[in-house]
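REVIEWER CHECKLIST
Item 1: Sequence provided? yes
Item 2: Single chain? yes
Item 3: Sequence as submitted:
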Amino acid sequence: MKWEESKQSYKNYLKLEKSLSENSIIAYLTDINKFEHFLLNEFKEIAPGNVELIHLKAYLERLTREGISSRSQARIISALKSFFNFLFIYGEIENNPGVLLESPKIGVKLPDVLSIDEIDALINAIDLAKAEGQRNRAMLETLYSCGLRVSELIGLKITNLFFEQGYIKVEGKGEKQRFVPISNSAIVEINRYMENGRGNLKISHESENILFLNRRGRKLTRVMIFTIIKRLAQQIDLKKKISPHTFRHSFASHLVDGGADLRVVQEMLGHESILTTEIYTHLDSEYLKDTINRYHPRS
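Item 4: Structure as written out by the authors:
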């Protein structure tokens, strides 16, 4: 079986059976494409069925020499093992070269978290005199209020807003849906945007049900959200490296810090496994340790 056929079959598997998002599928296939190119340059043409453990190890050695971090290597290994495991289970290859491939050990990377004051400062830095000001304010309030992923924010639909009940319906990874409570402040900002910002746009037909739009009346991109937040951080001279996901981390951390049940936080974030949510208990422990080190007389 050739590479293109193998990758197409794997892509269908990720989409139809694993229900992964388009972004996740692209990430998996990008890692596999890079490995294929490595084989072509170093070993000439090797079909997927002829790949051996020695080839995978040679690739990891190359990544190490290039300074690729252990965390990135672990992600790449996960993609390759998943790919060859799929081919083996479905009878496309006779031997699975990824079975004995080991991932580098990585520690738990605690996400950056914003304080409530920092979140307020970012939101207050938005210039409401600009056409996009009210939209940006509504977006940041929604990010923090609901703990959304950036893809969930830009895909949020008007028909999924249930303000009378105090909820929004979110379409998350793998097209899975969940209901998330929304704060009164976020509702106020969204309503203001609907009245004073969105209502003045000439909206494209395919974006009529999308809540947050660009000046051309079309769906926003992930990159645009990153850019908006980066500029606001520069305005207030925030030294932390932040992204839209930082608001999601802050949302979860503040809930756990306030005593929220971990299962509830898991449901709000849309995590499949409680293990993913447990990072915020580690985050809380780090905060406690830092507090003790700073204020305890014996520290």
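Item 5: Key structural point noted by reviewer: The first strand starts at residue 161 and ends at 162.
Item 6: Recommendation: ____
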